[in-house]
Amino acid sequence: MNAVHNFLFNVYPYICLGVFFMGSLARFDRDQYTWKSDSSQLLRAGQLRWGSNLFHAGILFLFFGHLFGQLTPHFVYEKFITASQKQLLAVVAGGVAGSICFIGLSLLLHRRIFDPRIRLTSHRTDLAILIILWVQLFMGLATLPSSLQHVSEPHTMLQLATYLQGIATFQPDANLLAGIEWHFQAHMLLGMTIFLLFPFSRLVHVWSGFATVAYLFRPYQVVRARRLNVPAGQNQPRRVS
Questions:
Q1: Which of 35, 139, 178, 198 is the most buried (most CB within 10 A)?
Q2: Phi/psi of residue 44, nearest 5 degrees
Q3: Which of 100-114, 166-180, 201-215 has the lowest mean pLDDT?
Q4: Considering the entire predicted model, what is its pTM?
Q5: 236 C-beta neighbours (distance < 10 Å), count
Q6: CB atoms < 10 A from the CB of 90, how many?
Q7: Phi-psi domain of 233 (left: phi exceeds 0; alpha: psi -120 through 50; beta: other)
Q8: Residue 47 CA: distances (Å) to CA of 53, 97, 145
Q9: How far, in whole angstroms, is CA 214 from its chain's centroid?
Q10: Can you list the alpha helix ranges (DSSP code H) found in 72-143?
Q11: Is 221 helix (H, G, I), strand (E, B) or coil?
């Protein structure tokens, strides 16, 4: 294992995660006005509706699928599903969700590039992050044929999962990736880079999306209507959800 390989898979992940967390916190603390996705819905709503819904549905499935699928140790699920069955499930479900996400992102990217008004109002970082995500999705879908070949012998996928679990437990081992096909390694490196770029792009609004879960558990608000010339006793507060 050479020094470059060691840096990319033992050190670089922690640089990306450090910038991801500290950069997000710094941006929220110092520049909250930019903590948004800069919607261009007023300029062209139809294609945005389809593209945004497909993209968000697909990316959420992919994110949580990768999160729990890769970071869950083999011994946790081996009593319920074999490694080969899990690999096949990942290929099928990931392929469907990835295709949906790819179509949605392609619509969003086409809209920003080929609509003159939207292109003029788009930041360069908006286009850059969409292109990077598009390339990442393309690379992920391109790995599916190889992943399907590993169903009968899922050793490669188990190695990748073990490596990522080592990152999460601060025990990285880049040796686990020796001999792994280059496209899997490139897909992982670009994924790490997305975390690195996250605080400097419109992706920071993802934090707000997760925070909205608290809306389901907040107490009722008491709203008092300010109406003039209303008989006494009629202007009563009401509860709204």
A1: 198
A2: -170, 100
A3: 201-215
A4: 0.82
A5: 8
A6: 19
A7: left
A8: 10, 19, 31
A9: 20
A10: 74-77, 83-114, 116-121, 124-142
A11: strand
